[in-house]
Design goal:
By secondary structure, the protein is α/β, with parallel strands linked by helices. The protein is 43% helix and 14% strand. It folds into three domains: 211 residues, 3-Layer(aba) Sandwich (Rossmann fold), CATH 3.40.50; 85 residues, Ubiquitin-like (UB roll) (Roll), CATH 3.10.20; 96 residues, Up-down Bundle (de novo design (two linked rop proteins)). Helix 2 crosses helix 9 and helix 13 packs antiparallel against helix 14.
Length: 422
């Protein structure tokens, strides 16, 4: 498979403008601003079938199309680089190893929606990545790819790097907007949607790093070539961050529709040390876990994961072998979400802490059989009852662990300890 997103990352000096240009970098930008209208760029991306890679999977070109063309207000394009999902580190690789791909993609998206001010909102902990991007932005500006009259085409764009303060919730697009405006990072009620009422009340598009990094290849090679990769509904390639009990952890670029079991066993080296696979979280910690037997016939695309009872999410694959205590794993994830809840919505604010405390009680040998029913009840009362998807992200994995490993939870409760750690 020809790489779309990781094509440059192993080259010496891949973060520099010289290396990026030597591989055809900014050729797509020149083509777009000199030969295409913003509407034509949008239509090309629609035809490619590219879907948002931040987790939601919404068609990218369609999202751009919601921005009103006749609005007198300024339009904003934001690159969401606030990668905080546990188990996910693919955006970080692009930022540190191929920053100009991210920048070129951001410029292309901004041009498509007729934006003249764009932002890269980067996770606060990505200090090194921020420095890499700052240097790349300076190179791009000096070369005429940013600023006034880009490539002599009469298009102006200011691209501003903004560092977050380390809040997971700011990865949610409306919380990101609140943070960027200087407010507490609280999600907003939708509608109205950011496309019409976003940053400073103006039309705004928020796209993930991986989504934007795919644009230069699509605009350079054509929508048809990209659409020919993957499945009917899940086009192109996807980055997967693989960690846990696996032979070769790392970031992999995979064609959509690739067999999941084959990916784990052949590409990633399988479960090491003679252990057996017990479970896999395929899309980051906020997605429901799959048992080993559920992985058999799953393919790596949006529809297949959904049919299997989970979601592709951000592509953060967390592998757990048979030495893993699922009670402790569930508690660890619940503890993270309880800590990161912004506290705006009562079901999430209260429910996340309840689930964390119940899991802790079971883990510490003080749980009762009714605790499992309570977790399912609390998670059920959170899902669909919060302003943003954070509540669902906390509740779905909690419920999945209890349902899929119920016998292990019951043993833990009955014996008041973990039998795996004897």
């Amino acid at each position: 498979m020809e790489k779309v997103l990781l094509r440059n990352v192993d080259l010496p000096g891949s973060h520099t403008l010289a290396v990026y240009e030597s591989q055809g970098g900014y050729r797509a930008l020149k083509k777009a601003v000199q030969e295409m209208t913003p509407e034509q760029v949008t239509e090309e991306v629609k035809s490619s079938g590219l879907r948002g890679r931040g987790g939601a999977g919404f068609p990218t070109g369609m999202k751009w199309g919601f921005v009103p063309k006749d609005s007198p207000k300024p339009k904003y394009l934001i690159c969401n680089a606030d990668e905080s999902e546990p188990g996910t580190f693919k955006d970080r690789v692009l930022i540190e190893k191929d920053p100009h791909a991210v920048i070129e993609g951001t410029i292309l998206a901004a041009y498509a929606i007729r934006s003249h001010t764009a932002f890269i909102y980067i996770r606060g902990e990505f200090a090194f990545g921020a420095r890499v991007l700052e240097k790349a932005l300076a190179e791009a500006t000096q070369a005429g790819y940013l600023g006034k009259n880009i490539l002599g085409a009469g298009y102006d764009l200011d691209l501003i790097l903004h560092r977050g303060a380390g809040a997971y919730i700011c990865g949610e697009e409306t919380a990101l907007l609140s943070s960027l405006e200087g407010w507490k990072g609280w999600p907003r009620v939708k509608p109205p949607f950011p496309a019409t009422h976003g940053l400073f009340g103006c039309p705004t598009v928020v796209n993930n790093v991986e989504t934007l990094a795919a644009l230069p290849w699509i605009l350079d090679r054509g929508a048809g070539q990209y659409a020919a990769i993957g499945t009917e509904k899940s086009k192109g390639t996807k980055l997967f961050s693989v960690s846990g009990h696996i032979g070769r952890p790392g970031v992999y670029e995979v064609e959509m529709g690739y067999p999941f079991k084959r990916f784990l066993e052949e590409d990633c080296g399988g479960v090491p040390d003679g252990r057996k696979l017990k479970g896999v979280i395929p899309g980051g910690a906020s997605m429901p876990v799959l048992r080993a037997d559920e992985v058999e016939n799953v393919r790596m695309d949006y529809e297949s994961f959904q049919a299997a009872g989970t979601l592709l999410g951000s592509g953060g694959v967390i592998v757990m072998d048979d030495s893993t205590c699922m009670v402790k794993a569930a508690w660890n994830i619940a503890r993270f979400f309880a800590h990161e809840s912004c506290g705006q919505c009562t079901p999430c604010r209260e429910g996340c802490h309840w689930m964390e405390k119940i899991f802790a009680r079971i883990e510490n040998g003080q749980g009762g059989t009714k605790d499992l029913d309570t977790i399912l009840s609390v998670s059920g009362n959170i899902i669909g009852n919060t302003i943003c998807p954070f509540g669902d992200a906390a509740a779905m994995p909690a419920a999945a662990f209890v349902k899929k490993y119920q016998e292990e939870f019951e043993q833990h409760i009955a014996q008041k300890k973990c039998v795996l750690r004897e």
